[in-house]
Design goal:
- There is one protein chain.
- With 141 residues, the protein is mostly helical.
- The chain is built from six helices and no strands.
- Helix 4 runs antiparallel to helix 6 (125-134).
Length: 141
């Protein structure tokens, strides 16, 4: 009976994890689309981005920032009294999101897509990890 309960909890936790982060990931996983790859190779060689590609990168960062902040506001109020479960979910969030955001950030953060990088580059991968480890589930105890 306990094994069945644990399996159900793990299954539900995985569903929550993937559903919760789907809007956030939507913006940063598009990094794998081929049309952006050729253009970002040009930025590494020092060539200018087209206005369409600059806007696409701005939209990706802006979308990530908006969805991440919204999810942070929601999840900080989740109450998970079991400390071990809460820590496990935090770690799962880190393991699930940070590698994707790191890849996205490394690929686009140094691209000349804006004259105002502070507007779009709100978070480093380290910031995202720190926030996930500390700010999410604040009301848990």
């Amino acid at each position: 009976m306990v094994v069945v309960f644990i399996c159900i909890v793990v299954f539900v936790a995985w569903q929550c994890l993937t559903c919760s982060w789907s809007k956030v990931l939507h913006h940063i996983l598009e990094v794998n689309k081929p049309q952006m790859g050729a253009q970002t190779d040009k930025t590494r060689a020092g060539e200018k981005l087209s206005s369409r590609h600059r806007q696409a990168i701005k939209d990706k960062f802006k979308g990530f920032n908006t969805e991440f902040e919204e999810l942070q506001l929601i999840q900080k109020h989740f109450a998970i009294p079991d400390e071990r479960l809460r820590d496990t979910i935090r770690e799962d969030n880190v393991d699930f999101l940070v590698p994707h955001y790191t890849m996205f950030h490394e690929r686009y953060a140094s691209a000349p897509f804006t004259k105002n990088p502070d507007k779009y580059l709100k978070y480093t991968p380290e910031d995202v990890e720190r926030i996930l480890r500390t700010s999410f589930f604040d009301m848990a105890a």
